[in-house]
Structures are given as structure tokens and as C-alpha cells.
Design the sequence.
């Protein structure tokens, strides 16, 4: 991201990082209840505001929608796993719509193979880890989102990697549901991996859309 852009919009990004960090360190705090739930949703919600203000247009709105639905999922999952999963499912649908609107022109064979692997392996591994068919069905959207991100024209080593991190964080969550005992690893890693993934997605997409808008304005 250009230095000037980062400085101009640092309040939204820094506020998102601070909120996410605060939730991570306060997640076991007695404050609990609705305040902790709202704090959990604030980090990604601020990324959605950043995307809406910085990118704009149909693509920017789709990104903001995907992030906003994820923020809702972050909060609703504290009430009921099904509610949170539904919000995240809709978030993936919005993200898939964004990425399909912005395909990579000529993906290589290895890039296509990686996309197919993300699409097919994500639901299979999710089902094997959780032992839950509904989780496997949800993960079809999760894998579709990651595959579409990987094959989109957005920076692969920011947006694509961010989507893969999202998948990893969910797989760690699903590992809690099945026979695989990873002890405290999911508790330590799920949130930072998830938020880093969302941060990379938000900044990567916004950087691309903003740069193109400025280039078009300059040509005029």
C-alpha cells in the first residue's frame, strides 16, 4: 500500500488492529457478555468501513459487504454456532461474487491446480476434522471463496494468502469438534490467523481498486 494512502487511512486500519488485539487479550476476561462480543466484531467491522470509504464502487461495496457479514459472524457465533456460520457463509458468497467479477487474465497451470485443490480439499478436510456433514457443506463456500481469491486478479500474495489464512483458521476451529486433539493450539492461533487473513484481503483489494481508479483519473 502506498505510504500516503496508509497515512491517510491509518486511523481505520490502526483502530481495527487495536480492537482485534484487545479482543485477543481480553477474550478470557470477566467482562464477557455483550461487550466482549461487540469488541470481537469491531476489528473486521472497521476493515469494512475502511473498504467502503477507500474503495467505493460495486467491487468496493462487495468487499465491504463480505467484511461486514464476517463481523456479524464474529459476534453471532458467540450466541449460536449456526447463526455465526450462516453469516460467514453469506460473507463467502459475497466474496466469491467479488472475485468472480475480477478474474485473473491468464492463470498458469499451477495456479489453476491450487484453486481446484482449495475448492475440493477444504470441504473434505473440514468434514474429516469435524465429523459433521453440515460443516463440510459450509466449507464448500469457504473453499470456493479461497479458490476464487487465488484465481482473481488481486495480489495473490496478499488477497490469495489472506483467503488461505481464513481457511486455516476455520480448520483449526473444526479440529475442536472432532477426535483430533490439538490441545491449546486452536485457542492461541485461530483469532490472529483469521484477523491477519481479513486484513490482507481488505488492504490487498482496496490497494488494487484504488490504484486503478487513480490511474484512470490521471489519464483523463
Sequence:
Amino acid at each position: 500500500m502506498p505510504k500516503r494512502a496508509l497515512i491517510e487511512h491509518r486511523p481505520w486500519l490502526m483502530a481495527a488492529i487495536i480492537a482485534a488485539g484487545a479482543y485477543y487479550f481480553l477474550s478470557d476476561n470477566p467482562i464477557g457478555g455483550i461487550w466482549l462480543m461487540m469488541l470481537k466484531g469491531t476489528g473486521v467491522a472497521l476493515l469494512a468501513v475502511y473498504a467502503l470509504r477507500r474503495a467505493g464502487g460495486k467491487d468496493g461495496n462487495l468487499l465491504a459487504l463480505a467484511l461486514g457479514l464476517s463481523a456479524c459472524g464474529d459476534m453471532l457465533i458467540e450466541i449460536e454456532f449456526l447463526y455465526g456460520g450462516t453469516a460467514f457463509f453469506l460473507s463467502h458468497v459475497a466474496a466469491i461474487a467479488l472475485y468472480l467479477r475480477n478474474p485473473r487474465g491468464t492463470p498458469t497451470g499451477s495456479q489453476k491446480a491450487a484453486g481446484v485443490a482449495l475448492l475440493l480439499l477444504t470441504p473434505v478436510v473440514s468434514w474429516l476434522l469435524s465429523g459433521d456433514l453440515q460443516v463440510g457443506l459450509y466449507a464448500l463456500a469457504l473453499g470456493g471463496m479461497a479458490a476464487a481469491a487465488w484465481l482473481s486478479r488481486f495480489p495473490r500474495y496478499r488477497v490469495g494468502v489472506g483467503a488461505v489464512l481464513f481457511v486455516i483458521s476455520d480448520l483449526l476451529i473444526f479440529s475442536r469438534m472432532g477426535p483430533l486433539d490439538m490441545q491449546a493450539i486452536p485457542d492461541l492461533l485461530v483469532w490472529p490467523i483469521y484477523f491477519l487473513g481479513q486484513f490482507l484481503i481488505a488492504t490487498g483489494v482496496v490497494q488494487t481498486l484504488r490504484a486503478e481508479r487513480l490511474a484512470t483519473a490521471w489519464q483523463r
